[in-house]
């Protein structure tokens, strides 16, 4: 049983199948994708994304599937009820009306520019402080509210990558060589790589923003950055651009946690960067403090 936060449009799969994905959440704040196949796709429609209510769906006989993360899917024995009348449903809707954060999350899902999968991943990401980062394990991402304080040398923001595999090429006997394709004299394309240090009140961390995300955040292409760098004073202009994007501003950083032992010299990869909503952060903080008090 869950609150329906978001309903996706119907998608045709193959010749005679279609499906619809919905994001559902319960009082644990965990969001999961439920895929409604064929006839089940009609139990909800995307007009629900524009109304104030949040429907409650009760489904049984679902399959638990895994494809880049766990999700639920309808099957032969599935039964689905939307807004049934029972005690459990009433307690879930009471919870929903009393939890402002639940409505904030619903609105975030409805306006999200990310894919449904990314929205769910971001939404389920535990919030931590940077001092806790070294000990985070067994989660896909963790999330911190932090400022960017130092941008590493802008001379290294561009690297040349093999145009076949997009891996960094090495210079070998004066030739550009792609070690993974094993080709000498590889055709290369410029790629972006931003290294920053971020901090909150508890500590700091080196992070790396990879090509696609870096292009998106800076609002320009790697080729443009490369050509600016080749102009006189280009280094300063790139530095200014990076500073205009990150300087003196807090963001919500969604980070890949350490895979092995934490190394403070290592630069950890950023999955997503989100604008921060301080009101929402305070609400989560209050919830965290309240849960500590109960223990
Ligand atoms: Zn290659």
Number of strands: 18
**CATH architecture field of the largest domain:** Beta Barrel
Strand content: 25-35%
Q: Helical amount among residues, as a percent range?
A: 25-40%
Assigned CATH superfamily of the largest domain: Nucleic acid-binding proteins
Low-confidence stretches: none
Task: Examine the coordinates and then state which fold CATH places here, giving the name of the CATH topology of the largest domain.
Answer: OB fold (Dihydrolipoamide Acetyltransferase, E2P)
Ions, cofactors and other bound molecules: zinc ion
Largest sheet: 8 strands, mixed
Mean pLDDT: 90
Q: Would you tell me the structural class of the helices and strands?
A: alpha+beta
SSE order, as H and E?
EEEEEEEEHHHEEEEEEEEHHHEEH
CATH class of the largest domain, anyone?
Answer: Mainly Beta
Broad shape? globular
| Rounded radius of gyration (Å) | 23 Å
How far apart, in Å, are the first and last alpha carbons? Answer: 27 Å
Q: How many domain modules?
A: 3
Please, how many helices? Answer: 7
Name its key features:
Replication protein A 70 kDa DNA-binding subunit B-like, 3 domains, OB fold (Dihydrolipoamide Acetyltransferase, E2P), binds zinc ion, NA-bd_OB-fold, alpha+beta, eight-stranded mixed β-sheet, Rep_factor-A_C
């Amino acid at each position: 049983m869950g609150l329906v936060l978001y309903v996706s449009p119907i998608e045709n799969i193959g010749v005679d199948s279609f499906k619809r994905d919905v994001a559902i959440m319960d009082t644990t704040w965990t969001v999961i994708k439920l895929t409604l196949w064929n006839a089940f796709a009609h139990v909800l429609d995307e007009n629900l994304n524009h109304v104030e209510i949040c429907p409650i769906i009760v489904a049984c006989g679902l399959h638990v599937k895994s494809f880049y993360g766990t999700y639920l899917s309808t099957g032969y024995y599935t039964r689905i009820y939307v807004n049934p009348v029972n005690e459990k449903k009433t307690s879930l809707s009471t919870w929903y009306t009393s939890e402002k954060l639940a409505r904030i999350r619903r609105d975030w899902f409805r306006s999200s520019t990310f894919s449904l999968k990314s929205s769910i991943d971001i939404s389920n990401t535990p919030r931590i402080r940077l001092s806790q980062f070294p000990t985070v394990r067994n989660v896909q991402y963790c999330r911190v509210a932090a400022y960017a304080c130092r941008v590493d040398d802008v001379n290294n923001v561009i690297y040349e990558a093999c145009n076949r595999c997009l891996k960094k090429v090495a210079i070998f006997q004066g030739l550009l060589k792609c070690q993974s394709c094993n080709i000498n004299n590889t055709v290369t394309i410029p790629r972006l790589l931003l290294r920053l240090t971020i901090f909150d009140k508890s500590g700091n961390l080196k992070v790396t923003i990879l090509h696609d995300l870096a292009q998106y955040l800076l609002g320009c292409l790697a080729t443009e950055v490369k050509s600016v760098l080749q102009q006189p004073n280009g280094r300063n202009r790139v530095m200014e651009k990076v500073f205009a994007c990150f300087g003196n501003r807090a963001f919500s950083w969604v980070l890949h946690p350490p895979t092995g032992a934490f190394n403070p010299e290592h630069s950890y990869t950023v999955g997503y960067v989100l604008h921060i909503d301080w009101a929402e952060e305070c609400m989560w903080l209050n919830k965290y403090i309240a849960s500590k008090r109960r223990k």
